[in-house]
Structure formats: C-alpha cells, structure tokens
Q: What sequence folds into this?
C-alpha cells in the first residue's frame, strides 16, 4: 500500500505529538487537574501585583488578544528601537531561505526553514524579542513571568498542498502562548496568510468537534463546526506584525497558491510550559556581548522555571 505525502506527514506529526498527548491525558485526571489548576490560579493571582504598566497601544493589543485571540499591527507602531537591525537580519535570512532547494512533491517540504545546524539565535533577533515594551505586552497577557522560546524563519512554498501546520490545529506549548509572526513580504489572497478562527468561535468549535487533544483538522472537518465566513485570513503588507495566542484559537498557515510567503515567528510562554522549543542557542562569544546589554528581567526570560 502506498502512502501519500500528505498522509505520511499526518502520521509523522501524530507520532511526534504522542508524548504530549499522553501528558495531557494524565493532566486531565480529576485529582491531577484540580491540583494543577489551583497552582496555576495561585501563580496568576500572586503575579498580578507585579505586572508592568502598559501604554495605550499595549492595553489595546492585550484587550484584543483576550477578546479575539489575534491582533495585527504595523511593526512601526510598536516603536521598538531594535526593529531596523532585526528586520535587516530577517531579510538577509529570508534571502538564504530562498536559495534552499526543495521538492514540490514532498509534503514535508511545503514549509521550508533552517535546520538546527544551519542557524543560531542571532543578537539582532534576541535584542528585539527581549525589548522591554514587547515583554510588557506579552507578560500582561500571559499573566506570569515570561519565557522567550526562540524564533523560527519560514518560507511557505506556493504549491497549494495541505499538510502539517497548513491544517487547522491548536498549539499546546502552554495554557497561554504568544506567537509574533512578522511578514517579510506582502501577503495577499493566494499568498499563504496566517489564518485563524476567533476565540469565542474556537471555544464552541472545540466542544462541537470534541477536540481536546493534539491533532490536525481538514477544511471539511472544520466546516462541520465553523462557517467559512468566520475563518479570518490575515492579509497584510510586508512588516505587518501578527500577535496571536495559538493556544486559544484554531489556526493554520493557509496553503499559498500564487506567491510564496516569507515570515519570522517569535514564541513566548510562561516559565513553566508543557513544551519547550528545541532550537540552537546564541553563540557563546556573541552572548558575552549581548548579556551586557540586557537587564535581569530580560535574562530571566531565557530560563525555564516551574510554578512555585
């Protein structure tokens, strides 16, 4: 029996997610669930007094995330001093990605990124990800001390294939997750936009679909619970920033059919996540240079801790 590329990709992802499914299953046992939820709520309540004050833009972003699950803003509006350096490096890396060969008949090559041996955490990315104003927004939304998990570069091939992250899913790295996606080219219809289903509609769809574990859903499956008019595609210009809680909304990278999409994604969780990204760290010699420019709060965002 021959297995199609799309089915092989689905099987691979199911095997990869099995340990997290088992852990989530254990966490749902009544006694364990109650204990964990009590610890989590206690941590949230305790940390409320330490949450940084937000400006009007930060307040608007956090409120939109709580209501909608996703917010789109032009990067210039964030007014972060390291944006130019970060974007210059991102465009350079996108150029390198563009030169990576791929095979259009292999589903796993629909989304092209760097392997773990191909890149490290660059100072330009790290300094932007740890900007205090950005951390203020993330921390107010997550409600706990923040862990910066790293970044990922992506080139989405315009082949129209539905596989992996191009199918509907919810992320389970943590109870609340912030992923910041920056478009490195204009993304119009057919260009593979980030697509999501608003938070309240997602909550109803989870119940309708009995979606309480990891897994990918097809468009046909999603149509059983959500009208297609409620699928929101983030069509936006180069330099647009999509801030989204991928643990609270069904989402996907819509399969590009007309034009490839280049993007960079930064990921943040609490310091006690279920899943930690396995990515290369910054080179030791670069870290010595960067460390002197970071305060203790920023350094703490690079270390994983348990809920106390």
A:
């Amino acid at each position: 029996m021959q297995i199609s590329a799309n089915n092989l990709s689905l099987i691979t992802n199911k095997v990869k997610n099995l340990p997290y499914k088992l852990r989530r299953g254990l966490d749902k046992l009544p006694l364990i669930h109650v204990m964990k939820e009590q610890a989590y709520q206690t941590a949230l309540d305790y940390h409320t007094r330490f949450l940084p004050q937000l400006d009007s833009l930060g307040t608007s972003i956090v409120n939109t995330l709580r209501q909608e699950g996703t917010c789109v803003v032009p990067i210039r509006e964030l007014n972060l001093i390291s944006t130019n350096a970060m974007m210059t490096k991102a465009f350079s890396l996108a150029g390198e990605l563009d030169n990576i060969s791929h095979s259009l008949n292999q589903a796993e090559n629909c989304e092209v990124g760097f392997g773990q041996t191909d890149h490290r955490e660059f100072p330009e990315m790290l300094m932007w990800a740890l900007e205090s104003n950005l951390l203020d927004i993330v921390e107010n939304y997550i409600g706990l001390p923040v862990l910066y998990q790293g970044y990922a570069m992506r080139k989405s091939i315009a082949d129209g294939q539905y596989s992996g992250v191009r199918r509907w899913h919810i992320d389970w790295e943590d109870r609340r997750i912030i992923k910041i996606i920056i478009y490195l080219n204009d993304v119009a219809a057919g260009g593979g936009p980030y697509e999501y289903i608003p938070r309240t509609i997602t909550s109803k769809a989870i119940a309708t679909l009995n979606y309480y574990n990891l897994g990918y859903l097809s468009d046909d499956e999603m149509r059983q619970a959500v009208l297609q008019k409620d699928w929101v595609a983030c069509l936006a210009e180069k330099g647009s920033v999509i801030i989204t809680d991928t643990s609270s909304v069904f989402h996907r990278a819509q399969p590009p059919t007309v034009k490839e999409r280049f993007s960079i994604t930064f990921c943040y969780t609490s310091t006690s996540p279920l899943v930690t990204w396995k990515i290369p760290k910054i080179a030791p010699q670069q870290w010595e240079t960067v460390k002197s420019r970071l305060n203790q709060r920023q350094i703490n965002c690079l270390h994983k801790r348990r809920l106390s």
User: Anything to note?
Assistant: The domain at 5-300 is CATH 2.60.120.620 (Jelly Rolls). DSSP finds eleven helices and nine strands in the chain. Residues 103-107 have pLDDT under 50 and may be disordered. Strands lie at 70-74, 111-112, 146-156, 178-183, 194-196, 232-233, 240-244, 251-253, 261-270.
